[in-house]
Amino acid sequence: MDLVTVTGLSKRYGGIVALSDATFSARAGEVHALLGENGAGKSTFIQILSGAVQHDAGAIMVDGRDYRPANPDGAQARGIAAVFQELSLIPDLTVEQNIWFRREPLTPLRTVRRAELRRRTLALLEKYDFPPLRPDQELRRLTLAERQIVEIAKGLAKEPRILILDEATSALPAREAEWLLKLTRQLAAEGRLVIFISHRMAEVRAIADRLTIFRNGRTVAAHEAGAVSDEEIVTQMIGRHLDRLYPERVATATDRIALKVTGLSSGSRLSGVDFALREGEVLGVGGLQGHGQRELFQALFGATRASGRLELWGKPASIGNPRQALTGRDGIALVPEDRRGQGLLLTKSVRENLTLSVIGRFSRRGFLSRQKEAELVREMVGFLRIKADTPEQAAGTLSGGNQQKVIFGKMLLTEARVLLLYDPTRGVDVGTKGEIFQLMRDLAAKGYAILFHSSDMPELVHVADRVLVMRNGRVAATLEGERISEAEILRAAMLQREAA
Ligand SMILES: Nc1ncnc2c1ncn2[C@@H]1O[C@H](COP(=O)(O)OP(=O)(O)OP(=O)(O)O)[C@@H](O)[C@H]1O
Ligand SMILES: [Mg+2]
């Protein structure tokens, strides 16, 4: 018997239809993947199931009984917990305070029993074999990946019968992602239902028993995983045939050096990084997470204090502030890791976010320039297939993948020709991913120079011309040509680690 059955589920936000007559059913003991392109309604569906949002129409049955939670507590009472795509954690609280938020063990005087809180936290982390986390650390000090892991702990702490993971692997490095996939299978084996959302087909393939595909808020198909090909799934997701995900790798690098980095250091995370990025090149940055990749991007962009020498197009450049790094054709533009923290102004419109950093190009010329702005925005929205009701929709109300596209568009509009792309396709659906990769190659062919990090290693392997493998804050190896493979990247990163 099905554990969850959903019929006729609909949800609107003003004029925006997020879900329209969606159906869904899933059994206990299975991993059920929910697939669909950006803006298809997946997160909305999850928010309804977990009591964060109320639906307008439709019926949900859990265990054969009506289910309509008024809030997340109501969902929890029926054994349902979600790990949200946009994390729900509180920066000022510690890891353990976040995990047990509003569910802390209390004394009769209603103060928190600290030793018990610690004991429960350690027991939880051990039970599910969590990657290392310090219970007493303040959340604000953690990386995005670590915060994601805390969010997962918070979900599991509720010991739900139904656990929903909304792109929980998208911010995780390879090892941690693998841990989560394994854990997911284990939970299903215990008889729980895991509803799993991911834009990484390989992951879905590795763990899903069944899958349901949404498109434009509707259910277009449900399959046994073994009975359907990747190609069919993608076609059903995006409503058209996708020829290939990765573009042909045509070498377009010239001898001209766009960005030369010498002895770049920053705290204990980055020590003496040297490399040269050439005009027309896509230079990948790989290695095990936490070996300085993030700090490298931040330092180059001027968002973190660093020392060393930088040359842009043959001229010495100061490692200045981000605003300075942004301006002009000789500048540097960044797609940052944390899109909600660093990349977007959530309450501002799609238009404002896109043109924020280039506003000077429009503002002096009055009416005509307003028109030009509208035109550019329209082009960008069309080109990146940003799913927004109008360009005036607040960026914070876009689906996760569409927020990512706005950040990408914003960077393109700066006209900077040195691009720092940190996980630019995180949370982006396969259709648009392919377009972003193609765009990267096209930009390279036009003489742009691209530094590219991806937490999804196959992306590095298929898109980059060369790959710098980082270890302990240094460039440990540079892979080229045939040597660019997942195995080689891992080997370079691991061998070094043993030697260290
Ligand atoms: N609070 C809101 N206000 C207005 N529109 C919203 C709101 N929340 C979601 N939407 C819209 O509902 C639609 C579905 O969004 P949803 O987040 O469910 O997509 P998704 O399938 O999770 O996409 P992604 O893969 O990008 O995460 C989108 O068009 C989105 O803009
Ligand atoms: Mg989503």
Summed up:
This protein is an alpha/beta fold and 500 residues long.
Can you offer a commentary on this structure?
The protein has 500 residues and is α/β, with parallel strands linked by helices. The protein has helices spanning 42-49, 72-77, 95-99, 114-127, 144-156, 174-189, 201-207, 230-238, 293-301, 322-326, 339-343, 350-355, 360-363, 366-383, 400-413, 430-445, 457-463, 486-499; strands at 2-13, 16-27, 31-35, 57-62, 65-66, 80-83, 162-166, 193-197, 210-215, 218-224, 257-266, 270-278, 282-286, 307-312, 315-317, 332-335, 418-422, 449-453, 466-471, 474-480. A six-stranded mixed beta sheet has the order 6-7-8-3-9-10, sandwiched between helices. The protein has a six-stranded mixed beta sheet with strand order 16-17-18-13-19-20, sandwiched between helices. The longest helix is centred in the C-terminal third of the chain and has 18 residues, at 366-383. The radius of gyration is 23 Å and the shape is globular. Magnesium ion (MG) is lined by residues 42-43, 85, 166, 399-400.
Query: Widest sheet: strand order?
Result: 6-7-8-3-9-10
The helix-and-strand class reads: alpha/beta
Shape designation: globular
Helix coverage percent? 25-40%
**% residues in beta strands:** 15-25%
Number of DSSP strands? 20
**How many domain modules?**
2
Give the uncertain stretches in residue-range form.
496-500
Cα-atom Rg, whole angstroms? 23 Å
- What's the overall average pLDDT, rounded? 91
CATH topology of the largest domain: Rossmann fold
CATH architecture of the largest domain: 3-Layer(aba) Sandwich
Give the CATH level 1 class of the largest domain. Alpha Beta
The biggest beta sheet, please?
Answer: 6 strands, mixed
Count of DSSP H/I helices: 18
CATH superfamily of the largest domain: P-loop containing nucleotide triphosphate hydrolases
